[in-house]
Amino acid sequence: MSKEKAKEYYTHKRGAKKLNCAQAVIAAFTEKFLLDENSVGLFASFGRGMAPGGVCGAYYAAKFIMGDDHGDDIKRCGDTFLSKAGSLKCKEIRQGKKLSCVGCVETASEFLEGVKGSRANILVEKTKDVISLERQVRIIAGSLILSGILLSIFVNPWFLAVSIFVSSGLIFAGVTDSCMMGVLLMKLPYNRNLYKVKSGGKTCTMG
Asked: For the chain, which residues make up each domain, given as ranges?
């Protein structure tokens, strides 16, 4: 079943690379919904609460797969998440502790298994040559830490506080699985509408 496949992808039981919640759902339903083979990679930035609007990545992936032609199904999927998790937003779901991340992947997958019809022949293309959010976070964090160290050596020792602050933020992000820098970067203009989706003669943007 696709539900089990999605769970295995997310828990690192399929393949060599662990997928985030959004990727796990996309990967599990690639064959059923005839998704473009590059779709899984393009959802790499939509885990850990970094999907548009801060919604759960698994829910966002399910919503994307269903597309505009399944408005009623999307609403029912949202209602299902609200009932089980108490919210559609990743941060609020984790704080509420009603549904785990694995549970979100299972909920989204279980719902997609019951969806009739398919958003066939979806082609996802990148509209801008922008690096992923995760890589942007690493570059900025690394640059700030290095700058703080160099400035503390050559200008004023107090600049070391910059490195300490950023390092603490990375530790907090790792422990809570929540990255404020990533959320802020997602709101910047050049990180919006990153992908173009072609399906059934229609074109729309996502991200």
From this structure: 2-126+193-206, 133-182
CA distance between the termini of the chain: 28
Q: How far apart are CA 58 and CA 122, in angstroms?
A: 18
Strand runs labelled E in 6-156: 123-126
How far, in Å, CA of 206 to CA of 179, rounded?
21
Amino acid at 182: G
Cross-sheet strand order for the sheet of 202-206:
123-126, 195-199, 202-206
Contacts of 191 (CB under 8 A, 6+ apart): 130, 133, 136, 185, 207
Let me know: does 54 contact 90? Beta carbons within 8 Å.
yes
Q: pTM here?
A: 0.69
Residue 25 reports pLDDT greater than 80: yes
